[in-house]
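User: I'll paste a sequence; please echo it back and then give the predicted structure.

Assistant: Echoing your sequence first, then the prediction.
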Amino acid sequence: MAVESVVVRQRVEDLDAAVPFYEKLAGSTASRFAFAGVDLASVGPFLLFAGPDEAVQRVAGVTATLAVADLNAAVEEAKAGGADVVMPIQPTPNGRRAVLRHPYGGVFEYVGP
């Protein structure tokens, strides 16, 4: 398994106010979408999210998003190394994802085909 990129996750109180700052910082335009009651904006290496506390808690506990070339293989390899599956592979608006707790503590979202 090779991690192709890492996305930093950041909760913000006001997504509309935060997006211009991160667009300038990243030098790219935000792609906005909603998922599981949370409003999100992907801007370069940042994933900004906002929403009601109850909905945000579902995504706030994840340290970062790891993009991988083969999601099935990455999940199996992580499990073989001692990771626990918090959320199995499932479809999302922009691909597939799984959430795993690494054996040394971090909780990471894996995304990929």
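The chain has one domain: 3-112. The radius of gyration is 14 Å.
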